[in-house]
Design a protein that fits this description.
Elements: E1 26-28, E2 38-43, H1 49-59, E3 66-72, E4 76-78, E5 84-86, E6 90-96, H2 110-137
Length: 150
């Protein structure tokens, strides 16, 4: 975050140069399935739609088709000592990119996902094999209860 106070303009002073933007935008993953050209950002409350367009087009050179913003209030939480704590309010910008552009979240840990999938697959295979063994053992004693000691 680089919120700065602009210096007072005095005639003859050098031109004001700012290398960092005064706002920040935090990219978030949507909770529901959205098309590939929709992106969501958490932005400061003071930031307007025009600021979002300038931010994306001037800094990142990303064209924007449409923007909607929505303000959210922070939750009130009670601590164990009955203190009320309010989370800060925030604003979400829903950005729609032009037709040809797509945004896809990068897969940061592809190996971990593959390992998890392999472990789950092996676990399912073991479970099915155990079930098959149990069924093979008692296939001729289907009607006899298990307390007979089969």
């Amino acid at each position: 975050m680089s919120f700065r106070v602009y210096p007072k303009f005095v005639k003859g002073n050098p031109k004001l140069r700012i290398f960092l933007p005064n706002f920040y935008m935090k990219l978030i993953k949507p909770k529901v399935e959205v098309p590939n050209n929709h992106v969501q950002f958490i932005i400061p409350l003071e930031m307007t739609q025009y600021d979002v367009v300038n931010y994306l087009e001037k800094i990142y050179k990303v064209p924007v088709a449409q923007i909607n913003t929505k303000m959210y209030t922070g939750d009130l939480k009670k601590t164990f000592k009955n203190y009320l704590i309010k989370e800060p309010d925030y604003k979400i910008a829903y950005v729609v990119l032009p037709e040809g552009m797509e945004f896809k979240f990068p897969d940061i840990f592809p190996e971990l996902k593959k390992e998890k999938a392999n472990k789950e697959r092996e676990r399912y295979i073991e479970q099915t094999q155990d079930l098959q063994k149990q069924r093979k053992r008692n296939w001729h004693q289907v009607d006899i209860p298990t307390w007979f000691g089969a």
